[in-house]
Write a structure and sequence with these properties.
7 helices, mainly alpha
Length: about 120
């Protein structure tokens, strides 16, 4: 049987976010199951499955992007846990955040560090 985008996405989601990622998808089922499907198929089934970057590199980019976007603290929490799951250290995660200061400012970095502190 051929693997579907959803199957590939769920595999990647489990590698990165474990039970936390699955819980996010399940939490969407009562209100917007299609959103959960889109996240799994597109983000994790298409984008995370592409060659060229490791899961650590992808999570590094994701952390910086979420910090820069601002207002994404729940997603940042999931992806900090994911970054730890794929082998980034606490020190590396903090360095990623510090690197963002000149480009996004202190408030976003302070928010990201506060989220990290809860998980560390």
């Amino acid at each position: 049987m051929d693997k579907t985008r959803f199957d590939t996405g769920m595999e990647n989601l489990r590698k990165i976010d474990g039970a936390g990622g699955e819980a996010v998808i399940r939490s969407l089922a009562p209100i917007s199951p299609d959103l959960g499907t889109y996240i799994v198929e597109f983000a994790f089934g298409d984008i995370y499955a592409r060659p060229g970057l490791t899961l650590q590199e992808r999570e590094t980019i994701t952390l910086a992007s979420l910090l820069t976007a601002g207002g994404c603290e729940p997603q940042l929490e999931v992806h900090i846990a994911g970054a730890l799951n794929v082998g980034l250290t606490q020190e590396t995660i903090i360095e990623i955040f510090l690197q963002c200061i000149p480009y996004t400012g202190f408030p976003g970095v302070l928010n990201a560090v506060a989220v990290a502190k809860k998980l560390f």
